[in-house]
Design brief:
This protein has 27 helices and 12 strands. By secondary structure, it is an alpha/beta fold.
């Protein structure tokens, strides 16, 4: 339920905000209407002076692809068709200044009367002379006008371009549109002819230079071949390369063998002289001869063992076997030394083979590098000869093709599709559209100005500004009085119903706003003159008089207005006469016959009203009146002008501060309220008067609901 209530409040606020925007527009509707009518009339008058403009259009085709039966030099050169950039270049060429000057000269537009006439007709002579060109204008002076009226527009998705020109003469529009296309075709023919001649001359010069380059390159190649004795450089380089590969493989193998033998050699050198360790080396122990000797030794040792079991140490068989064992050990030792010597010789031989192979490999590398340099130089000279031959052949073919093709064309083709015709109806000015736009823009501009003026004014003329005003409570918002002149002549208090109801709401607020007894003596003041405080005081007194006995005192003796509004003699006795003790009370107070209200006007204006209001007699007079009246309303001068209101505020129970909603500045309001607060004046609240932009219902119910503030009382009978 709370959510629904919040949404309802939000929608209400939005509606109020919209009303605040629309209300100033409604108030200033006559200003908006007047401004709009003036602008519309001026626009209508202006459009009536304009000459009609006619636009003629011609269509050209600028193709990017050749027809199949068309031969061009690009086909002979095997080149692609025109690119989009080249086609766009042609569009910009049509728009260029140089091209415009050419068309102007061909049509002699400098002397053309229709081209040099102004945009205004002959209805008013002063306007007819505006914009006309002088007879001494040059071609360059007319280019700007020509380009402004010329339109070059490619048709999207096609090879067509629309050339249109607008002027005040339909015949001139047709002539210029067609002449632009004709001049462009002539320009293309000139370019093509010049291009053909230039291309042929250039090809001949290039062929001469290429012939010389080809001859020089061939001579250089032959001289190099003879100087180096080259017959078949590629075959020789291949043989040397194969030999280099073979030597590299042999060097790797020899190096591996030498590395393996180096390990054995180092171990032999380490254990040299130690037969046992030498014989245990893998390279020696694995020797076949040594293995056979060891096997034989094992057999003899077994035989020796068997004989030792059977015979004594001096037995001839045992002695013979022992001698054989000794001889075998000696042979093993000799065999070990022989193997060591063989390994050493083999190692040294392997080292020599490695060194020899490396020397041959280095020699082969030098030969290969030398031959490679020869081959590179030979290939370079050969390529130069081949390149020059190819270039010479290509340029020769192009020269023959260019000479054979008399109708040389560019890589795009141009032709007329539709020529311009004389336009029958003008395309500008669109008078109805201009008038409608002027009407709408005038309404928009005037509305924006009024709205911005209302929101930028530093006054209390909107609900938002009132919500942000915290210096004093706002107890009523009074609309501007809308009464007929006849009603005002017959009855000075006659107003419209809205104002009357707003005054009654103010009366209700004063009766029930205070927590204690309602104020009996009420002062009505304002910041500056002409804020309507006299009107508010008069109508508030009238409203109270419907139910009470009321006295209205005009204490503004400097600029009294109540007597004047009531068509009374402004020199009749009043408050100043009572204070000066020159007249009696019954001579100064008058009874309003319309509303049964007692009124004490200001009387004769004294030299120093402040002195009169500061007298004790004035305070006493107020107290005396308080015994006879239920309510006393005192109209005072403005606070910011004189200090009369400050003096009077010390004698009253409540002060109403009247503010003109559309004129009074906030700084003036703040200054006046500050002055009253400094003397502790009983400020009841602020009354917004002359409100045109604020919905008064929002503030008429500030202190009471709608059901509470409707008080129906019968008019009090006066005796």
């Amino acid at each position: 339920m709370k959510t629904l209530e919040n949404e309802h409040l939000l929608s209400t606020n939005d509606e109020i905000d919209l009303k605040e925007i629309l209300t100033p527009l409604w108030v200033g509707r006559w200003k908006i209407l007047f401004f709009t009518l003036v602008i519309t009339c001026l626009t209508t008058f202006y459009t009536s002076l304009l000459k009609p403009s006619y636009r003629a259009s011609a269509i050209l085709q600028i193709g990017t692809n050749k027809p199949a039966n068309t031969l061009s030099i690009n086909n002979a050169f095997n080149e692609s068709n025109a690119s989009k950039e080249q086609i766009q270049t042609q569009f910009e060429l049509l728009r260029s200044r140089k091209f415009a000057e050419r068309v102007i000269s061909q049509l002699d537009l400098v002397q053309h009367q229709a081209f040099n006439s102004g945009k205004y007709n002959d209805k008013l002579a002063i306007f007819a002379r505006i914009g006309q060109r002088s007879a001494t204008a040059s071609v360059s002076d007319l280019v700007g006008q020509f380009q402004q009226n010329l339109s070059i527009a490619p048709i999207v998705g096609t090879e067509l371009v629309n050339i249109s020109y607008g002027s005040y003469s339909p015949q001139l529009s047709q002539e210029i549109a067609n002449q632009v296309g004709i001049t462009y075709l002539e320009y293309q023919d000139e370019i093509h002819s010049a291009s053909k001649e230039t291309t042929s001359d250039w090809l001949v010069n290039q062929l001469e230079e290429l012939g010389k380059k080809l001859q020089n390159s061939e001579l250089s190649l032959q001289a190099y071949r003879e100087a180096e004795g080259i017959v078949d450089i590629h075959g020789v380089v291949g043989l040397v390369g194969a030999k280099l590969t073979e030597l590299s493989s042999a060097a790797l193998k020899a190096t591996k063998v030498a590395d393996d033998l180096a390990i054995s050699y180092q171990e032999i050198q380490q254990h040299k002289g130690d037969i046992k360790k030498l014989s245990d080396l893998p390279e020696i122990s694995s020797h076949s001869t040594l293995m056979q000797l060891r096997q034989t030794k094992e057999k003899i040792e077994r035989k020796m063992f068997e004989l030792s079991q059977r015979y004594g140490p001096k037995h001839p068989k045992k002695i013979a076997v022992h001698a054989e064992l000794i001889a075998l050990n000696k042979g093993i030792v000799e065999q070990v030394f022989d193997i060591v010597i063989a390994i050493e010789k083999e190692y040294f031989s392997a080292v020599e083979r490695v060194n020899g192979t490396k020397q041959r490999l280095a020699t082969a590398k030098k030969d290969y590098l030398r031959l490679s340099r020869l081959q590179n130089k030979f290939s370079q000279l050969s390529r130069e000869v081949d390149t020059n031959k190819e270039l010479y052949s290509n340029y020769l073919v192009r020269l023959k093709a260019a000479d054979a093709m008399d109708n040389y064309k560019a890589n795009f083709y141009v032709r007329f599709i539709d020529k311009a015709i004389v336009p029958k109806s003008p395309f500008a000015p669109k008078k109805s559209l201009m008038i409608v736009l002027a009407f709408l823009l005038a309404i928009m501009l005037s509305s924006i100005i009024i709205i911005m003026r209302e929101f930028l004014m530093d006054t209390l003329n909107s609900r938002h500004k009132l919500d942000n005003f915290n210096e004093a409570p706002i107890i009523a918002v009074l609309p501007k009085i809308q009464a007929s002149s006849q009603a005002l002549k017959d009855d000075s208090y006659s107003t419209d119903n809205r104002f009357t109801e707003a005054i009654r709401t103010l009366r209700t607020a004063l009766l029930f706003n205070s927590e204690t007894t309602p104020a009996k003596i009420i002062a009505v003041t304002s910041s500056v003159p002409s804020e309507g405080k006299s009107t508010v005081a008069l109508h508030l007194a009238r409203s109270f008089s419907e139910m009470e006995k009321v006295l209205l005192i005009e204490a503004d003796m400097r600029h009294p207005t109540i007597a004047k509004n009531m068509n009374l003699n402004e020199y009749r006795p009043g408050l100043s006469n009572l204070l000066a003790n020159t007249h009696q009370i019954h001579e100064c107070i008058i009874r309003d016959k319309n509303v049964k209200l007692d009124i004490l006007t200001s009387g004769i204006t004294p030299a120093n009203p402040l002195v009169f209001l500061s007298m004790k007699r004035f305070n006493t007079l107020i107290k005396v009146f308080g015994n006879f009246y239920d309510r006393i309303i005192i109209e005072t001068p403005p606070v910011n002008v004189v200090s009369d209101a400050v003096i009077i505020s010390k004698l009253v129970d409540s002060v109403l501060y009247v503010v003109h909603g559309n004129k009074t500045k906030r700084e003036q309001i703040s200054a006046g309220l500050k002055m009253l607060k400094q003397v502790n004046a009983p400020i009841e609240g602020v009354v917004i008067n002359h409100s045109e932009n604020i919905v008064t219902d929002e503030y008429q119910n500030k202190y009471y609901t709608q059901g509470n503030n409707i008080i129906n009382l019968s008019a009090r009978k006066r005796g």
